[in-house]
């Protein structure tokens, strides 16, 4: 199953604001394993395959550190093609001594968590086979169980880490929002996602095409959490790929119907969820 190409709607790129562009480039190259596809004095485009931008980082003018207890990024998730790849990445991170925030077996996936030098959350993960996912009443079963670190490292077969494989993708994005009900309406009625898992009253997960989630939403920074200042470190925007122009036009109508702002910029549509998380809408090539 491929949940990151049409006809699915999926996250293709994440655009981040950082405090120090040079420091961030070193981190994303040497720790995570991206390649720099292009750069200026204040920006860098990062890729895994040498062609496709997965992460764009920018150092804004008068940048200020990441603010706590606000809406915005919880983490963005880098999807690796195989379990062996995740094992090699984990072994690399342990070898260089980079601090990890944890790891988990989510039943549908295995994941490790860390943060970049600015405190932006990152998940590195691999999916378990779709055939092993359990669905009940339209929801996929997910959990947070201990990660079997030894078996995961063993899956890497002791092979040397050479950076992110070219098949690497942005698997999903998980956001802090100020209120779940309005956020759910925006992502379902506006963007056309389906709710595939509810985590009590504090989080929910959405996808298209029966993926375990392309979007995660939570209120863990507090109901009513404010937006970060525009020049604050954190999420600038993320890009959603829509399957075709017809879907793009339909989504624009749906968003305006629920009162969301939609503007056109360079052939793409730009909108924002009720918590101020900016989204660029493009059509898959």
TrEMBL record:
- Family annotation (CDD domains): VOC_BsCatE_like_C, VOC_BsCatE_like_N
Q: Please, which domain of life does this record's source organism belong to? A: Bacteria
Supply the alphabetized keyword list: Metal-binding
On whether Metal-binding is a keyword of this UniProt record, the answer is yes
Domain (VOC): residue spans on this chain:
10-127, 169-284
Family matches, as PANTHER family: CATECHOL-2,3-DIOXYGENASE
Put simply, this protein is called Glyoxalase
Instruction: Please tell me the species this chain comes from.
Output: Geobacillus uzenensis
Lineage, highest ranks first: Bacteria, Bacillati, Bacillota, Bacilli, Bacillales
């Amino acid at each position: 199953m491929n949940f990151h190409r049409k006809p699915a709607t999926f996250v293709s790129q994440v655009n981040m604001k950082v405090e120090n562009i040079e420091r961030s480039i070193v981190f994303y190259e040497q720790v995570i394993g991206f390649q720099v596809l292009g750069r200026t004095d204040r920006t860098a485009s990062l890729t895994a395959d040498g062609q496709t931008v997965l992460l764009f980082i920018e150092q804004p003018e008068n940048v200020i550190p990441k603010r706590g207890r606000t809406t915005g990024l919880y983490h963005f998730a880098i999807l690796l093609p195989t379990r062996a790849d995740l094992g090699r990445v984990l072994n690399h991170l342990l070898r260089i001594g980079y601090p990890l925030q944890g790891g988990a077996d989510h039943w549908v996936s295995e994941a490790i968590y860390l943060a970049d030098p600015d405190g932006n959350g990152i998940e590195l993960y691999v999916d378990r086979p779709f055939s092993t996912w359990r669905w009940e009443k339209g929801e996929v079963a997910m959990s947070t169980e201990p990660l079997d670190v030894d078996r995961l490292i063993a899956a890497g077969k002791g092979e040397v880490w050479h950076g992110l494989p070219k098949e690497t993708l942005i698997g999903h994005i998980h956001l802090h929002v100020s209120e779940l009900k309005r956020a759910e309406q925006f992502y379902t009625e506006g963007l056309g996602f389906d709710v595939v898992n509810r985590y009590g009253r504090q989080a929910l997960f959405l996808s298209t095409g029966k993926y375990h989630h392309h979007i995660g939403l939570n209120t863990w920074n507090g109901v009513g959490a404010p937006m970060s200042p525009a020049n604050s470190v954190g999420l600038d925007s993320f890009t959603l790929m829509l399957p075709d122009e017809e879907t793009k036009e339909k989504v624009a109508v749906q968003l305006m119907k629920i009162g969301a702002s939609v503007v056109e910029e360079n052939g793409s549509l730009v909108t924002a969820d009720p918590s101020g998380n900016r989204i660029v809408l493009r059509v898959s090539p």
